[in-house]
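Task card 7
Instruction: Convert sequence to structure tokens.
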Amino acid sequence: MKKVISALSALALLASLTACGKNADNGSGSGDSTAESSTDIQTMKAGTGDTVLTLYSFTKEVPEMMAKYIEMNPDFGKQYTVESTIIPTTEGAYQPALDMALSNGGKDAPDIYCAEAAFVLKYTQGAASKYAAPYDELGIDTQAEIDAAQIAPYAVDIGTNNDGKVVGLGYQATGGAFIYRRSIAKDVFGSDDPAAVSAAIGGGTQSWDTFWDAAEKLKAKGYGIVSGDGDIWHAVENSSDQGWIVNDKLHIDPKRAEFMDISMKLKENNYYNDTRDWNEAWFADMQGTGEKGILGFFGPAWLINYTMAEHCGGTKVGEGTYGDWGVCESPIGFFWGGTWLLANKDSEHKDAIGEFIDWVTLNTNEDGLQYMWANGTYNDAGTKDAVASAVVMNKSDGSVDFLGGQNMFDVFEPANAYANGKNLTPYDEDINSMWRDQVRQYTSGSKNKDEAIQAFKDQVSDTLDIEAE
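Output:
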């Protein structure tokens, strides 16, 4: 039971990657990248040592962390040169290239590689988990450090292989909350205080009942509660009790099935602007220029920092909606996204890999990646982000101007405890897309509920060779 990937496509991609070659080191020990215009593959090199370590990633984020680590640990950079290959996930390019590199082995196989939430289970628990080294083999006292750092449980669950060994951890915390417009909350609920808004929408109730009451109050004043049904989908998806595959069969968890009714309720009652996430109309609602004012969005801290802040129409308080946001507890606990770091079990440099991975995923000191990430001292951008370690967030200042000076860690740290990391499957990226497409066809009236569900089952069977229960 697996999705068939074109061998010719993978071979072509690998050939183009090989043709790219590696950049000459600039001698500075910092990251140096060169974009490849034909494939969007990038390479980065850090360090000047004779021993080469190889890193595969789908963004520059982790390679830049490696460059930062070498900057802070120059002896590491004198001993090692880290060659990073960055292949975007667009058009499914990353996984085939990574799979081929891992299966071929040898000197070109990655010593360290990254996987995101959409496909991480393939590498921690699925078909490609056989390549991943347990963190215990990297010189890391894994469980003791997880406990000491208070790493978010869902992140540990996802990074644990079928033998109960941790083979992957992340650095971001992606537990979700409700990110709301303060001015709209004041107008409708009489307060923009996070506790008051949480109570108004049913924060922490694990139910949507109060949320719908809030939607009706907002509608009465001409507002929507969310931009589109996609804003609720991530909360629904990652709060379900079971994933899409149970006993090798397609399973529609009751909470995910309920999303059809949720989406229809939003549509029929005009509780939203009927946008699709990641489209211009969705961004317009972040800026407050959509069809009607929208109270908020469900998401983790990265949605604030890297999406909403970029589309709010300003860069300081008083411009666009910048500063007119707050964050409170979501009615439903969930997580959304994240990147996990894995090590190749066949690497000849496990101690070196372990040093870096430990610094990124488990170190709670002020010179560790997570502390700098949380406090905005990692780079010149000064961005503060929620991190995997509750210990780090509890001793850090998460106050940001975008949220009206609110310390977002007060909300995002406990949010991680509600997130469920046991409902993912290696097929989520594809199945989610099919499901949401059929839900849209149902809410648009082109199919009734039974027709949409059957079309979904047929599509999963035809595309992934997975039959329904």
